[in-house]
Amino acid sequence: MNLDHLLAGLEARNPATLARAISIVENARPGFEALLSAIHPKLGRARRIGITGPPGAGKSTLTECLVAAFRAQDLTVAVVAVDPTSPFTGGALLGDRIRMESIALDDGVFIRSMATRGSLGGLATTTREVCDLLDAAGFDRILIETVGVGQSELDVAAMADTSVLVLTPESGDGIQTLKSGIMEIADVFVVNKADRSGADRLRQELEVTLGIRKGRAFRNIPAHHGALESGPAAPEPDNAEWRQPVLGTVAVECQGVDELTASLAEHWEWLEASGTLRERRRRRIRDRTRAVVNRAVKAWIWSDTEADRRIEARLDEVERGTVSPYDVSHEILDGLKQGMKL
Amino acid sequence: MMTESNTLSRPIRILVAKPGLDGHDRGAKVVAAALRDAGMEVIYTGLHQTPEMIATAAIQEDVDVVGLSILSGAHMTLFPRVRDLLVEAGREDILVTGGGIIPDKDIEALEGLGVGRLFGPGTPTADLIDYIQQWAGANLTE
Q1: Complex ipTM, two decimals?
Q2: Three-state secondary structure string covering A24-50
Q3: B57–A111 CB contact, under 8 Å
Q4: What is the CATH number of the domain that holds A202?
Q5: Is residue A13 domain-shared with residue A54, that is, in the same domain?
Q6: Which residue of B has its CA nearest to A27?
Q7: Alpha helices for A275-339 (secondary structure H)
Q8: Domain limits at A32?
Q9: Region A284-288: what's the mean pLDDT?
Q10: Is B32 within 8 Å of B44 (Cβ atoms)?
Q11: A49: which strand partners?
């Protein structure tokens, strides 16, 4: 498929062409970088919302509710749902669509499943590029649903404008909420299955944890034996700081979703007003450019400069122990720096 | 099980769907798991899918193959309908195959309508994996 045809299809939001374009990027087929480069001027319209959390927390179900809520506001929505690839067979079972039946036939909704294909950060290696295509195709909201995560799959935070962490009352006690990693990246916390016992306690513990991080753990605690009753009121939080809300939802009934969309809208306003949006997006451009350079340099070194042949030539000596792998690496690097074809 | 006969540099993508009204999805799940273990990316959409939902999903997911499990007797309607919807969307290149309780004469008729091979009860999963991999080898270039 040629570039003009792809771009015209994206412009018209033709689902078959968009789907093809996604595959070209996902499989790094020839021309994928030209395609991504050509759509770059169109990027930045869509709000990218990451939905992450442990397996079975209700990410897909909540995503379906969010899509319906955005559609009710007459916004178009794309969903990228990521599930894991088997490290043994390379196969994957992508089952997130099962939870999204009610939105499956809506013209204003596009759903794409992706397998991680070896990436370990909770997304596929090309999920952010796929989001660029969806952005260029004019979707108003892009929901990115990660694989079921543990504690440290944080890639989504680097690519979403807003990250939502979905937990359940079974997600653990207050100590879990104090740990590093996933708890630190969320802009909005959701305790799903909020009709189950323990949900209120988890919400409260999350509030306390967030308070500790922001140095206001003791705000909103009633005066003890009247000791603080006449003390000055605690200062209001700085407006420049985003205060992560902790919401309760029951996703199977789409309960609490209006509060969630309201929080997402508030976070967006804050992102824009505080300059954080621009900062995050500039960081992303920087990261992306680095990643493209890294990939190209890697390909160049190993395909064009014959660095492999140099390694091969010195392998016997390295094996005997007369030179080390570090010596050979330096030889190669020095050669590259001098512009030498090895 | 590894995909030795698959010469593609990417996994085969296949949609496994269960159209119609019967609620028997054990077979579809067994097939989905076997295809996954053969190294394919399997999009599983669950029960009670309409042909429109199946075709929409197949197009959005850009699959190579659609596999339908039909035990309701409605195969003469469902297979051609899914195939027609794909053709309408310009995706006649997607293989529509599947299985279920389907009489031989119907299988012949469906093959005449552009539907791929259909498999009956008791088929070893290796047979359909072979079939899909061979089809992919002959029909997919990238």
Answers
A1: 0.91
A2: HHHCCCCCHHHHHHHHHHHCCCCEEEE
A3: yes
A4: 3.40.50.300
A5: no
A6: B10
A7: 276-304, 307-320, 325-337
A8: 1-41
A9: 91
A10: yes
A11: A143, A162
B13-139: in CATH 3.40.50.2000: no
The two structure tokens encoding residue B38: 């053969």
Pair (A109, A13) in one structural domain:
no
Q: A119: which 2 tokens?
A: 């990436």
- Tell me the residue type at A119: S
Backbone angles phi, psi at A285, to 5 degrees: -65, -40
Contact A110 B142 (CB under 8 A): no
How does DSSP assign B92-108, residue by residue?
A: TTSEEEEEES--HHHHH
pTM here is 0.88
- Count: domains in chain A: 3
Same-domain status, A132 and A265: yes
The confidence band for A241, taking pLDDT boundaries of 50, 70 and 90, is confident
Residue with tokens 């850009």: B62
- Interchain contact, A91 vs B9, CB within 8 Å: no
For residue B73, the distance in angstroms to the closest alpha carbon of chain A comes to 23
Residue A298 lies in a domain: no
Domain annotation covers residue A115: yes
Report whether pLDDT(B80) > 90: yes
One domain for residues A50 and A62 = yes
Q: Does A90 contact B35 at a Cβ distance shorter than 8 Å?
A: no
